[in-house]
Write a structure and sequence with these properties.
The protein is mainly alpha-helical. The protein is 62% helix and 0% strand. The chain has helices at residues 8-27, 37-45, 49-62, 77-81, 86-101, 108-114. Helix 2 (37-45) crosses helix 3 (49-62).
Length: 115
């Protein structure tokens, strides 16, 4: 793909590969035997063997490697589903802040006991 743009993570992997092969060349021997493909790939790309195994499994099952999906932010659930005025939402915020200040988990049971 001449002329295609290279992402930073790809360039880091390429540099890791280059460093790995230069190291093998200078030592004039293989750092890991060719029979240990997973370990050799992990060392060359500077990722864990678990990551290599996961990617290998993904390619075997689906035919390609999926990148993680973007995490979506969830809006204000309480205010969007009910009609709370500013005073009520302030009281709720302060109540939960008090729980965290006392290092206490805000359970419904303890919330009802405090009211």
């Amino acid at each position: 793909m001449p002329g295609s743009r290279i992402v930073t993570t790809v360039s880091k992997i390429v540099m890791n590969l280059l460093r790995y092969f230069e190291n093998e060349c200078s030592q004039n021997k293989l750092s890991v035997p060719l029979s240990q493909l997973i370990k050799r790939t992990a060392l060359a790309t500077d990722v864990s063997t678990g990551t290599v195994n996961r990617m290998k499994r993904e390619v075997k099952n689906s035919g390609n490697v999926q990148s993680p999906s973007k995490r979506r932010r969830i809006g204000k659930l309480i205010c969007s589903s009910t009609s709370l005025d500013e005073f009520d939402s302030c009281v709720i915020r302060e109540t939960f802040s008090d729980f965290y200040g006392r290092i206490e988990i805000p359970l419904l049971r303890t919330l009802l006991q405090n009211c």
